[in-house]
Amino acid sequence: MFSINDILSITTVNPETGELVEVSEFSSYEISKMEWHASLSKAIEDGFLMRIPCPRSSGRYFLNGQFAVIDGDVHRILSVGSEKDSMVFVNAASTKDFVRQKNGLNPLQICDWIPKADLQRSVEFPEATSPAHATRLAFNAVPNRRLASDYAVSTVYSGVAGDFLVSQHQASDKRCLPPVLHVARLLARKPLSDMDETLMVQHYKISGSNELVTDGGLSIANEYFVDKWREAGLPVPKVYSRALTAKAS
Fold this sequence. Notes:
alpha+beta; 2 domains; 18% helix; 38% strand
């Protein structure tokens, strides 16, 4: 299985968004498709990458954590130290330059002062001004949309990934603000503090000015909604159960 360093060594990281470019172009390397996707999944589990579902593909992958462009190359920020005026001291690992050692492929690292403003987190849409705006941009990118139909939308904003079902109930009017979007999100939450987690749904509205407001309270997700969520290709959140945990121990 490939390590995160192996993955990065045969991909390119977009310096503006933190997205891995040509992440699925592995045909010229001695690795099977199954092994490649298993390596990506392991990198996600270990917290190195985020995956954004994408129609007709295995998904899009972004760096999970801070990064910065240093000397023209994207570096993952391993740790942040002292700050002085507008500068910050960092330990950073290259996503481009690697050396092979006994324990495998390792990135070249640097310790240096860089401008604090250079620290970034992955975003799917650099022009987005808020998570709601990013969600609207992702929804607008869905082809052949129809009114009152739910579409799977996943996006990254400032290093935070979100999965949603989004629908538009009114036609666009070019003379007015963009139409209101109706958003649903599946979450693992406790209905009450002394209860186990269960799957719950939170509904939102995104206004024409991209303001996000809740539309009612959390409600327990029924089987129909969970099936619709799963069929849309969105990941179902893991539910923590005290009974299962006690049984496993």
